[in-house]
Amino acid sequence: MRKEGSKERVRNRRDERPTQEPTPLQLKTIWDKILKDADAREAIEKLKKDGFYFTHTAAPRLRSEEDFKYPNWAGNLAAIPLVPYCSARRRIYRRTSLKKYWALVGVLRQLEEKLNDRFCDVSIESITDFPMAEINVLGRRVRETADFLEQFFCWNWYTREQNPRNALIAELRWQIRYRTKRPHDVELSTLIDAAFRAAGAKEQPSLDNTALERIEKREKEGRVKAATQLRRQRSPITVPKSES
Q: What Å distances lie between residue 39 and 4, 43, 52, 63, 192, CA to CA?
C-alpha cells in the first residue's frame, strides 16, 4: 500500500504545472544581458536586416520594466529559459458527462416562474441577505443563468495545455520565417543560447535546425489534433425536458 501511495504522489507532482509567469523585471533583466552578448547582437542585426524586429513594439527601445508588461518578441525570447519545460496535455470534456445536472435547469425555470408570478410571494434564506428590491429583479438573473446552463450542458469542449517553452520557441520560429521568408535557425538558436546564459542556467538545450523544426511541427500538429478530436465528438444533442 505504501508503494502505491508514493507512486500516486509522484504522479500528482508531475501533473502539477507552474502557473506563475515571469515578471516584467525578470524579462527586462534577461533582455538587457542578451543585448550585451556579442553573438546575440550579431544575430539580432541579421534578423533586423531581413525584416524581423525584436523591438518592433509601441515602446521600440524597451528601456523600462513597463515595456515588458505586455507580450512582445523580446519578452518572449527572454521568457524561454524561465518558463517550464513540461509535457503537453489534452483533455476532452463531453456533454454526456453533464446529463445528471440537467435537473438544475428545470429547477431554475420553476423558480423563475414563481418569481414572475405576481400572486406568489418568494422569500430567500441564504448566507447573504436578499433585500426585497433585489428579489424583484431576481427573475431575470435566474432566467439568464438557466439559459446559459442549458447551452453549457450541450457543449463538448477541449483543453490543450502546451509545453510553455516549446510554445514560445515555435511561435518565434514561425514569426521569423513568416517575416523574413526563411527560418534563420542559426540566429534563433544563438539567441536562445544567449537567453539561457543570461538567466544563469547551468544546462542549455541543444537546438539545431532539426530540433527547432520538430518543435514547431509538433505545436502545429497539436492544434490540428485538437480540432480533429473535438469534431469527432459531434453527436445529436438531446435536451431533457424540464419537469413542471
A: 50, 6, 17, 21, 11
Q: At what angle do helices 185-198 and 164-180 cross, to 10 degrees?
A: 140
CB 106 within 8 A of CB 75: no
Q: How many CA atoms lie within 13 A of 111 on its CB side?
A: 20
Cell numbers at 124, concatenated: 430567500
The answer to whether the beta carbons of residues 172 and 44 sit under 8 Å apart is no
pTM to 2 decimal places? 0.73
Distance CA 73, CA 56 (A): 8
Residue at grid coordinates 423558480: 111
Q: How many CB atoms lie within 10 A of CB 168?
A: 23
The C-alpha atoms of residue 136 and residue 131 are separated, in whole angstroms, by: 9
| Rounded-to-integer distance, Cα 160 and Cα 92, Å | 9
Q: Which residue has the cell 447573504?
A: 128
How does pLDDT run along the chain (244 residues), one tens digit per residue? 444 455 444 444 444 555 678 999 999 999 999 999 999 999 999 999 999 988 754 445 677 777 788 888 999 999 999 999 988 888 888 888 999 999 999 999 999 999 888 899 888 887 777 677 777 788 899 999 999 999 999 998 888 888 999 999 999 999 999 999 998 999 999 999 999 999 998 888 888 889 999 999 988 887 776 667 666 666 555 666 655 4
